[in-house]
UniProtKB/TrEMBL annotation, chains A, B, C, D, E, F:
InterPro entries: Asp/Glu/hydantoin_racemase, Hydantoin_racemase-like, Iso_Racemase_Enz_sf. It catalyses: a D-5-monosubstituted hydantoin = a L-5-monosubstituted hydantoin; D-5-benzylhydantoin = L-5-benzylhydantoin; D-5-isobutylhydantoin = L-5-isobutylhydantoin. This is Hydantoin racemase. Its EC number is 5.1.99.5. Gene3D superfamilies: 3.40.50.12500. Belongs to the HyuE racemase family. Pfam families: Asp_Glu_race. One of its GO terms (molecular function) is amino-acid racemase activity.
Amino acid sequence: MAHIRLINPNTTASMTASIYRAANDYAATGTQVSACQPEAGPVSIESHFDEAISAVGVAQEVIKGEQEGNIDAYVVACFGDPGLLAARELTRAPVVGIAEAAFHMATLISTRFSIVTTLGRTGIIAEHLLEQYGFRQHCRRIRAAEIPVLDLEHHPEAAYRRIVQECCRARDEDGIGAIVLGCGGMANLTQEISREVGLPIVEGVSAGLKLAESLIGLGLFTSKHGDLAYPRPKPFTGQFADFSNLTLPPGG
Amino acid sequence: MAHIRLINPNTTASMTASIYRAANDYAATGTQVSACQPEAGPVSIESHFDEAISAVGVAQEVIKGEQEGNIDAYVVACFGDPGLLAARELTRAPVVGIAEAAFHMATLISTRFSIVTTLGRTGIIAEHLLEQYGFRQHCRRIRAAEIPVLDLEHHPEAAYRRIVQECCRARDEDGIGAIVLGCGGMANLTQEISREVGLPIVEGVSAGLKLAESLIGLGLFTSKHGDLAYPRPKPFTGQFADFSNLTLPPGG
Amino acid sequence: MAHIRLINPNTTASMTASIYRAANDYAATGTQVSACQPEAGPVSIESHFDEAISAVGVAQEVIKGEQEGNIDAYVVACFGDPGLLAARELTRAPVVGIAEAAFHMATLISTRFSIVTTLGRTGIIAEHLLEQYGFRQHCRRIRAAEIPVLDLEHHPEAAYRRIVQECCRARDEDGIGAIVLGCGGMANLTQEISREVGLPIVEGVSAGLKLAESLIGLGLFTSKHGDLAYPRPKPFTGQFADFSNLTLPPGG
Amino acid sequence: MAHIRLINPNTTASMTASIYRAANDYAATGTQVSACQPEAGPVSIESHFDEAISAVGVAQEVIKGEQEGNIDAYVVACFGDPGLLAARELTRAPVVGIAEAAFHMATLISTRFSIVTTLGRTGIIAEHLLEQYGFRQHCRRIRAAEIPVLDLEHHPEAAYRRIVQECCRARDEDGIGAIVLGCGGMANLTQEISREVGLPIVEGVSAGLKLAESLIGLGLFTSKHGDLAYPRPKPFTGQFADFSNLTLPPGG
Amino acid sequence: MAHIRLINPNTTASMTASIYRAANDYAATGTQVSACQPEAGPVSIESHFDEAISAVGVAQEVIKGEQEGNIDAYVVACFGDPGLLAARELTRAPVVGIAEAAFHMATLISTRFSIVTTLGRTGIIAEHLLEQYGFRQHCRRIRAAEIPVLDLEHHPEAAYRRIVQECCRARDEDGIGAIVLGCGGMANLTQEISREVGLPIVEGVSAGLKLAESLIGLGLFTSKHGDLAYPRPKPFTGQFADFSNLTLPPGG
Amino acid sequence: MAHIRLINPNTTASMTASIYRAANDYAATGTQVSACQPEAGPVSIESHFDEAISAVGVAQEVIKGEQEGNIDAYVVACFGDPGLLAARELTRAPVVGIAEAAFHMATLISTRFSIVTTLGRTGIIAEHLLEQYGFRQHCRRIRAAEIPVLDLEHHPEAAYRRIVQECCRARDEDGIGAIVLGCGGMANLTQEISREVGLPIVEGVSAGLKLAESLIGLGLFTSKHGDLAYPRPKPFTGQFADFSNLTLPPGG
């Protein structure tokens, strides 16, 4: 039995639930999925600032998971992969970001893809990730539906129509074979969009879950040799004092 | 029940068997693994020429698989990923190469990796793949144990020692967190090497199997929109006449 | 007297003849041109699959040429450069692909160029070659006339008009100085297109011939030091058994 | 009178003082320098995790600065540039990171440089920044003195000798013209190292101060058009509730 | 007192005066600005040829400056940065090009920028510089107002309108945060354009001045270790005989 | 009859003669070779400064050639390709640089090459050219024999030994298939070095001649559409007044 913990980096519980369902539908026999969200942080992530704050919550949730002691892998379920490398330092368990997961999967079924995301201003976050992960040349275009993240919850119909509209444009204009959905909040829409657009639609939450299962199945763990080794224990001050002299559990 | 077909692109049956075992050990509940090799081609793949010939066999095995009609994904089990894009054109099922699979997995558990392969002359094949897939900056160095591929079968002890030796050098000198094994024939050595070297060792056959399972689980298929669409049917002549006017099965 | 062998990787004899004429018109005094096509393979090359099969024929034609013993250089006359590195392994004689030849020449007379090819789906092949050869930044755009390759033979008037139309768009919209024709079948149209479009038009068959002449003239041969050394002799099975234990002629 | 606020992202006050002195020595007539550190966070930054936590402090210090209302530019004084893009979103004032500042300056006085940093494990942070900022080809090598950051305070002599030793190796082996010091804690050593090594030594705190002065002098502000616009106001929960519905001052 | 010498690489004195004013407005207390132009060369720089000739004048002006002996830094005030590396070889003083200066500054206040230049044909010069300096990915688009350089002097109103027009298009279509003005002759228009367009406008002459001030303030000099060392003295013939056996002043 | 003009960018007549012989040995039947050197400039080119001055001479020699009216192509015979793009603007005839020529040829016969040049300080010039031309990934290493250019004339034996020594190191350590000689003055040594080192040695003067012949044979000319169009005529002052209002001959 493998236990995969989804970390929703924002603090909107309903989005956590929706991400959980989206992932759980894809869980293999023998995979237990659980989901959590930080105790503190932004209700949605739509800027570098939101992302920076949310990274603390991601780290805290990994530390909690390590204390629970029975988590086999983590998925960071926000398309900017906030705190991903920090999270990897905190555990031997594999940690997968949903942006990277979606990019990896998209390159396995197409030669070029486009991204359809929520707000145009977050496009730069995706660009930086594409560069860091090596997929810049595989992504033809980043398109924004220009809807705030929480509209996916509050105005689902209108949001859905805008996303499908941009996906159809990507299909017709970008010379691509697949589309990556650029927001964890779109996870539950994948199949419906795919049917309507007629292209493979890659969504990161489910992709991240399957990559996490894969890494567990392969017996691979986050390398503790070199730059992802556990952080050197040290004092932290103020509201972050709990991070002081972190002793990560042996199983971690 | 998902059926994944491993295609060993060379014609050495014992290597097919070894690859089968290496993959089957990692198969999830509900995954049926089968393995095959081309009817015609080189007994090992150690050059661009060997690779070019083996690509025909890979294509033939995909066509056969499509005619069988019950294959859900293919894994091309040679580290040069021969015929990968051709194979993808021939089927809607996902097709995963073991080099790409290993690269993807290695980037999820480390920030930089090295490759340990058989012969130095095949390093250029890996370099070209790293460039095409986007992982050039993630790979610090390609190292060769300078052993012919079939020595992995004929002189397993000596071959094993040489590979471990290069892996240790990579660990100590390259500033990496993981090592990718650069030959399908090394698949059964992964765990032993990992124990001895003390780093995560990523091997492509098992990695390819898990990625194939993931794509099946996600309901993703090779995009038939754009440049991976089925090949236009047309006449082929001579020994390749069987490829003429290929009508791929509806399920394909 | 230098003997250059053109290898048309597809099996359409009329296209071989047309390529021969296109090249022969440009041959220097002292250059003998001959042309051949594989005994087996696709009648045209419009996909990764077609290309993979054609690479075998290319290799076979090089082996034949080496057995003839009087070939000084080879030109692989299909825009995807199928089997190019395999061919280079099989001979000390220089081997030039027409895509690479055209790219090289275009960069000598302009700072940026566009490609006009037949079908959009082959654009990815050109993109991968541009990346591998280093010319990605020199190519502004890959344009497709969306005509099947054999239409160049069957509907030459209509095909010609479509190609000119795309060339004019490239000239007016792409900010380029030259155009590369992306199909060996366009070889005989070069001068006419150039006159009509008013830009230098670079065509690969003639460019490949001149580069082959240049390499012969320079006394340069394909390096046998390192990764283009002759393939290690080994058994091949089935319909490829003739490749077994290849002993390439001393002059090869 | 221009007011530049140095933000030391770690919470070690003595390091803040040292950074302040290092910068103040270089301040132009008419520049007022002040320095601060977060109320909460790690005492030194030596990992992705430390960096992620420190980014919150950086953001908080910018928000405080904006509330003070008289800050003309900020310098983020840790070599990983933690929270840089988040900080830029929070203010119209220019914000400069010391890694980027050092890289920019180094390219103006040399064609290639090396970095000498504290711990090897932080090299990957510098590598990612070089890639994001565009300086990967300008940096020949990242070298680590393998000293913890606080040893710069606790064992200054030994630390200094190790740094000079690596700088000399860089000078002699790397084919470079300048060296970038990869830690804010080295700021006060710059001139001494430069004298001993005989190469231009670029240090980020002073470089960042001068770039901040330059941007102020030019009347340039952080663009609020597009992806660095103020974050959309929204609720934050828990210990981050203070960030809720942030209304940044008009002057901000 | 720091003395910064602006070198206008073209020979139009009125443009030198205009560049001088543009820079002097931004000079810090304690900075003395002087400006010069070559005795010989083109009246404006609009081609590789113009640029090649102007590089001689730039070198001559640096040599003159070194003989004067009191110059602390140089700014090469033409957007192609002609002769920049040659100039750096001739002096220990920092030398800053206005294209590089503008690029550096633009990346500090935005994540992506566009360039608005005079003639389309000079775009390739900017492209080559972006590649060499590392900023290719930061520049979304190079736009030309298609006005000859001297029209900035002869038809200022019309030229200004065309530039503003292109800047507005860049703002609305390119997904950028800042605009770089691609011609030294536009220096005096910066503030007016910025007001009208509503984006940060980065102009190289003022940016170069501030970077020069910064380097002086930091005590940084052009590295004489390695490839920017003083040129080896040697004979020059003909009209360039004056460059023979150049002995650069000790202070140089 | 095709007339190719070699331009030796330095003013050492004996080197012009040596370059002439090196090229003439490779001239095809029907090719007339002539060689010239600027009337003014450095006696050798070993720095950015030397190169900048020599670019004027290159331009002047092209203008002279155009006035002669019977030149079909030019070769710029210094490894830094000084003034290459300026030269291309001045004529419709093809202009080939010897660095680019050598790089192009080397990639046709090997997958990776190294450069052996004279002085280490000129390595950066080669690096910048590799980047601009697209061959950065094809060049494994730039090695310097650390001999001044004119030592090739004055101490030929010692220079030859040093070059062979570096070539052997490149062969044994760099993982390459070919070596590019990085100085026009080495042109006459090519065959001897190749025999001694046992690798294909690519030399730019002969390579440039053959590429020039190829372009002539193909009827290709330097594009006058876009950024290599003739320079706009304009006044030049001082010693460069002769360049004023350049009217290039109709044949040009």
